[in-house]
Write a structure and sequence with these properties.
Helix content of chain B: 25-40%
Oligomer: heterodimer
Number of helices of chain B: 20
Structural class of chain A: alpha/beta
Largest sheet of chain B: 7 strands, antiparallel
Helix content of chain A: 25-40%
Number of strands of chain A: 19
Bound molecules: zinc ion
CATH class of one domain in chain B: Alpha Beta
CATH topology of one domain in chain B: D-amino Acid Aminotransferase, Chain A, domain 1
Order of helices and strands of chain A: HEEEEEHEEEEEEHEHEHEEHEHEHEHEH
Shape of chain B: globular
CATH superfamily of one domain in chain B: DNA ligase/mRNA capping enzyme
Shape of chain A: globular
Distance between the termini of chain B: 51 Å
Amino acid sequence: MNGTSMAAPVLTLTERGLYCAAGDFFIDPWRPVDRALITHGHADHARSGHRRYLCTDACMPVMRHRLGEITGETVGYGETRQIGDATVSFHPAGHVPGSAQIRVEVAGEVWVVSGDYKTEADGLCETFQPVRCHTFISECTFGLPVFRWQPQAEVAAEINQWWATNKAEGRTSLLMAYSLGKAQRVLHLLDPEIGPILTHAAVENTNAVLRAQGLPLPDTIRITPELDRKAYPGALIVAPPSVLGSAWARRFGPLSTGFASGWMQMRGVRRRRAADRGFVISDHADWAGLLGAIKDTGAQSLFLTHGYTEIFTRYLREAGYDAHVLATEFGGEDTDDSTAAHAAQGEDAA
Amino acid sequence: MKRFAALFTAIDQTTRTTAKVAALADYFRTAPDDDKIWTIALFSGRRPKRAVTTTRLRDWAAEIAGVPLWLFEDSYSIVGDLAETIALVLPPAASVSDDSLSYWINLLRDLSQAEDEARKTAVLRAWDRLDTTERLVFNKLLTGGFRMGVSQKLMTRALAQATGKPEAELAHRLMGDWSPDSTGFAELIEADDPAADLSRPYPFCLAYGVDDLASLGPVTDWQAEWKWDGIRAQVIARGGKLFVWSRGEELITDRFPELARLAADLPDGTVLDGELVAWDGSAPMPFAVLQKRITRKTVPKKLLAEAPVILLAYDVLEHEGRDLRADPLATRRARLDSLLQTLPPDSPLRPSPLIAAPDWETLAHHRADAREMKAEGLMIKRLSSPYHVGRKRGDWWKWKLAPLTVDAVMIYAQSGHGRRANLFTDFTFAVWQGNDLVPFTKAYSGLTDAEFAEITRWVRRNTLQRYGPVRQVTPHHVFEIAFEGIQLSPRHKSGIALRFPRMLRWRQDKTVDQADSLDHLREMLAQYG
Ligand SMILES: [Zn+2]
Ligand SMILES: [Zn+2]
């Protein structure tokens, strides 16, 4: 019997979320708690109503933007904090700007909560760093071997080619992307030489918060009710998926629609979206990325959340890990399985 | 393959029909003849013979991908498409290939004679030279399931655009028993073909649904017929030949050899509109029987004897070469009746009977008998109406029976395929037998994506057991299941089988004990089976 399984668990699953008794705090809780450590600003991880928040410096502006005035502190990546008997630190998760994995150490026992993560460097958010630990609580949104992302540069070329073709055919390009993370990622990949870039207010508001932190985004034009929609022929619009088929979208004249998501890997899901094009680009790790990240932690004990947890867990067990499904209620009523819920709304798991 | 893969991508990447047709037309203008003829063959359901079993393909794909077979199978059940699953799990190709579509098809053909080891070597070598889309196409050629969201009709339209030949003529040229092995593009598409005109059908006149008959005025202005549950078809006898067209404007003559004799029995220059049904001598047989016939291009003798097909004719569009469509229905019907009277009694052509009624109420009573007549309801047609082109409101109405329904409990859930790969959409339903819930049908349509998303969340939290991709869930939700017919089925635990079951409503207002019983279904079986 090894030492890990004998030790008291650093984190336990409670009705409110992952709880650390040694430090009396929660990580990404889904019901109001006294003290919440937050991995990143997506809605199924960062909820309102907690008394005190702790997150990275880079995460806080987005949290305030989305949750309003919240009370809390921030830490830099890699900086340690003592909370009760627990030592905690935040490490880049590469998911969205400011996102973190949270390392919790109690009496020499180290657990890491991955939050959501992506292993490929995107040139925009802090690059994922593996953190050694005994127990790793990992997401596995895309935990099937059919998910293999192409290099980002190839997707960028596809998107820009699509845009240029649409422009030549007199169509406006409408690219749908989740407003925090994915939208900035695609903006960063666009070639501004092709034409003007317009943004939906939900995207532009997030852009403003991130630009203020120094994120390198191209120039964009905010779409307001007063904007002359005919003044930007051949433009590309970045907007959240909810606009697909709406009157808002129709006002731009002939459109070609594109959808940026890891789910676009599956033709069937792409067709359900009824967009003209699907671009396979995700803020989550693909199959190889997940396996590599897990290996790099050195952890023997694993808990899996998000996505195809049963399948992925079975695979890991056969590979010799002590792996378990973690039945989180991420998002409470909203995303106990973020893959299904988000995909239904046409979004990547947040 | 690159050119064909690009065509596949172009078609796959747009939801606009005009764009699909344009991409195909462009392909037909530029591709080499050998590839064009194979493309036509693929889009008209002519495939190279399957060279490798799907079992072997799965084994090889899992092996090359370095994943256990069960994981490959689970992935397949989520992706919903074997060719796609294989294309996605394989590691990136080591090299590229400039070989054409026909090269790969010929390679596949040679494989069917090869030993298993040689097949494996060839397939693995192909996978290693093709990119993801090319692999998908190659795998679809291997597995035979070639559907690209382009019907034969759209392909014909594209061919018309590319060649400048009329669509109807091309449709005729593509019919019959040709194969790319023996027929070239020029021969099939470009050579003179005086026979094309002979087969040309008229556009079908289509009906709208109706509920309120009072608004139609006096019943005496109308003609009523049974609405049969068969295949709408036009039968054309011209130039001593017979042609049968489906409503999808597909030429299906070869599938119904029993109709061939009509070429001699009908006067030259006759076009009839009616319904193909499997006929037991006095009434139509269930649609399931006819279904066995539809799917086959050549019909075995045994099936021909078990499921003989006739045409129940309800209109005549051409008589002795004269287009009658502008004549009033009453005149056309009289012409039809006198035409059919001259046929021998064993003819595979019968008039679809008229239903006389002095008022709408009587007609409503007749409609209530439709299920017993093996019909779906009534057709109501204005006696003075011409035969319209396509769907036109006002003269032709279909007055269908309401579906049968039963309240049932969801007990198993499975994720959907393709379009709904990450939602639970396929459910098994049960009814009560004493204190037990007996499964009796599956259904997977009828709810909105939002409802499916809601159920999916519920299923994940209320799973009792997992059997591979299937989850047994807490019996909690009641659904109203609608269906069109009910049959005895020894293969099912419940002893019954439903036709077209679907979820009509999610009865959130009902608890499980309010669901129906198996006895209730058995009563329905006794009444309508
Ligand atoms: Zn997220
Ligand atoms: Zn998440």
